[in-house]
């Protein structure tokens, strides 16, 4: 029995270490989940974007879990210094491989924090124009009016101008309507004002405006500027142009178009 005592002591010693390592892993994993959930709830209270909350939560949980694994291995007697060095080297290798995506990641964080637009907004960003389908850490998906899906790197979006057509609840339609110099300007202005009044989608406040803008080379131009709800913008704009053309034709108001007078020199011919 005595000759086996040493083996028994070693088994008991390693058994205690294994049990301790398992307990450290189980308790550490539970604590990691608890801290991660607390972090996520804190971000949710600050109205942080859900995509960013999920990403940061997963990142923190992974980092805490690595620490728990190192602690558990240390209990087993594993040289954790070497293990940590291996993890660091692997992280560096992954970082170098993904270096091109770091700018997209940083830009994605900026977009999610500053919120220049949200899912469902109609925007012009990164060379694409359309409705935002999703906002990711590395890229943003935009669906165009003709149903094309464009995946735009976030660095392209942050690096240029962002036009959000849906940010404000109302938009102003800017039309330039040209008429002939021989037309009655008072009749033209009154006709344009009546056309605006006849469309219930045009807002009364702010009030629409019709004003003489320019005495151009071949036309007298009026600025026509009604305000509408952002969702009605394109429909109202199209309807207004059609109504103006039809009613101007009915009233004999001319809409000039570019033309060229050609004079033939009979002597030269």
TrEMBL record:
Pfam families given in the database record: MS_channel_1st, MS_channel_1st_1, MS_channel_2nd, MS_channel_3rd
Matching InterPro entries: LSM_dom_sf (IPR010920), MS_channel_1st (IPR049142), MS_channel_C (IPR049278), MSC_TM_helix (IPR008910), MscS_archaea/bacteria_type (IPR045275), MscS_beta-dom_sf (IPR023408), MscS_channel_2nd (IPR006685), MscS_channel_C_sf (IPR011066)
Annotated membrane topology: Multi-pass membrane protein
Domain Mechanosensitive ion channel MscS C-terminal: 173-255
Location in or out of the cell: Cell membrane
Source organism, top-level taxon: Bacteria
Protein keywords: Cell membrane, Membrane, Transmembrane, Transmembrane helix
GO molecular-function term, one example from the UniProt record: mechanosensitive monoatomic ion channel activity
Gene Ontology CC annotation, any one: plasma membrane
Residues in Mechanosensitive ion channel MscS domain copies: 102-167
Keyword Transmembrane helix: yes
Residues spanning the membrane: 12-32, 52-77, 83-114
Family, per entry: Belongs to the MscS (TC 1.A.23) family.
Protein name: MscS Mechanosensitive ion channel
Organism expressing this protein natively: Caminibacter mediatlanticus TB-2
